[in-house]
Each structure stands twice: as C-alpha cells, then as structure tokens.
Amino acid sequence: MTVIHRGDLHGTSVSAWWLGEDNRLLAAFTMNRPDEERESAPQWIEKKQILSPERLADAGRSVHDAVYLPK
Questions:
Q1: Which of 18, 38, 58, 66 is deepest in the core (most CB within 10 A)?
Q2: Element (H, E) at 65
Q3: pTM of the predicted model, to two decimals?
Q4: Is position 10 within any domain?
Q5: Residue 48: inside a domain
Q6: Apex 53 CA angle, 56 and 67, nearest 5
Q7: Are 55 and 65 in contact (CB under 8 A)?
C-alpha cells in the first residue's frame, strides 16, 4: 500500500490518498482542500480508479492529472 499526501501535513489543508498494490484508490481523507480533491475522492473510490502515485504527489499538478488513462 502507498500513501500520498497533498498539502501541509502540519497545517489545516491536507489530503491523504491510500493506493493499493495496483495503484487503485482505496481510501482518501481531505481537509480544507480544493473542490476537485473533495469531489473526486468518493467517486474514484467507488470506481476503483487507478492513479499515478507520482502525478498525485506532485502538488503543482491538478489531482485530475493523476488519473491513469490506458493507451
């Protein structure tokens, strides 16, 4: 399992994303994060969305950039 954090772990704006061995989103926690994170997390958990850990961890990118799109 991989845990990815976005935001400030010691502040009031943070999210945590738990990915399984296959990089499917298993769980997420969002606190005072942008709407795109709060709204996407439940949908992606339900869909068992595959995410890129590297792109998800990159705070300079939109969380939507982390969605794995098969070629």
A1: 66
A2: none
A3: 0.92
A4: yes
A5: yes
A6: 60
A7: yes
SS3 of 62, please?
Answer: coil
pLDDT digits (tens, 9 = 90+) for 18-48: 999 999 999 999 999 999 999 999 999 999 9
Q: Which domain holds residue 11?
A: 2-62
Quick check: 70 pLDDT over 90? no
User: What is residue 69's predicted lDDT score, i.e. its pLDDT?
Assistant: 78
| Other Cβ atoms closer than 10 A to 26 | 13
What are phi and psi for residue 60, nearest 5 degrees?
Answer: -80, -5
Question: How far apart are alpha carbons 35 and 67 in whole angstroms?
Answer: 16
CA distances, 49 to each of 7, 10, 27, 28, 45 (Å): 21, 28, 11, 12, 6
